[in-house]
Amino acid sequence: MAIFNQTHLTGQIQAHNMTSGLGLPLPGVLCEYRAFPADGLVAVPDFMSDEEACNLPIASLTAWMAINGMRPLGQPAQGGETVLIQGTGGVAIAGLQIAHAAGLKTIVTSSSDEKLEKARKMGADFTINYRTTAGWESEVMRVTGDKGADIIFENGGAQTLRKSFDCIAFGGLINCIGYLSGKEDVSEDKLHTNVLALRRNVTLKGILNGPKDRFEEMTQFYERHQIRPVVDRTFKFDEAKEALKYLYSGGHFGKVVVKVAE
Ligand SMILES: NC(=O)c1ccc[n+]([C@@H]2O[C@H](COP(=O)([O-])OP(=O)(O)OC[C@H]3O[C@@H](n4cnc5c(N)ncnc54)[C@H](OP(=O)(O)O)[C@@H]3O)[C@@H](O)[C@H]2O)c1
Fold this sequence. Notes:
By secondary structure, the chain is an alpha/beta fold. It has 9 helices and 8 strands. The strands form 2 sheets. Strands 3-2-1-4-5-6 form a 6-stranded parallel beta sheet, sandwiched between helices. A two-stranded parallel ribbon has the order 7-8. The longest helix is centred in the C-terminal third of the chain and has 14 residues, at 212-225. It is globular and about 50 Å long. The relative contact order is 0.17. Bound molecules: NADP nicotinamide-adenine-dinucleotide phosphate. Residues 58-59, 62, 86-92, 109-112, 115, 130, 155-156, 159-160, 177-181, 207-209, 247, 250 line the site of NADP nicotinamide-adenine-dinucleotide phosphate (NAP).
């Protein structure tokens, strides 16, 4: 498996590592043949198919870093915390699998009751429909006994960050991963981020994938727990455009895969 920023092998990402990003600025991996420096590769776990393994470098590693990136290498989470996961896309479902296997309590939000049902079948402890429950942050507080979530996957951005600050536990960690609902604050009450962060002693952490040693740490965890990434649908190589359209439609649960060769 190719690591995203090819020179990011350990520790905090630096500006120079970002010049080695696959897809940005280097060519991406939607191709049939590609040569990589050995340093930029991680071995596929024996029990996984290629269709499953191709989900690990971006979605799974990002989720792994959201849960474990602030902990020492080799000492991943072992239960006792609650994780709030926004949505049911690739990063979110990888996060659910990792958190559940680590014994953490999980809360998943989605716009679809059908997807929430699937999340519960995978072990999600609480699920909330963010379309029908606009005040989902109050629901998070309720199901956590007014404590809030210890770790939040902030995938929404504009329409979710303020709510995340309202349902984070004291001392909790908000991982800024994506901005699926936009980049600009749309809330009426525009409290500054510094006030929101100090109010509950929150750590706000930007996530930019992760380094190779963390990727290997995660792969061992997947092996130990025999976690198989959730592939919603697999497209043929010459159907890549349809695959992207399907991804943008948001109908998927987990990952969308393009198979390079039969
Ligand atoms: N920082 C990094 O290193 C990194 C790495 C990978 C991805 N990302 C970013 O992280 C985000 C998620 O990536 P992904 O690959 O998981 O994307 P994805 O598979 O396309 O996720 C789409 C899902 O996100 C959910 N969603 C959309 N708007 C939402 C909202 N307002 N509130 C809550 N959930 C919402 C929807 O779930 P439902 O259908 O269930 O409603 C949607 O199906 C993207 O913005 C992506 O660019 C960042």
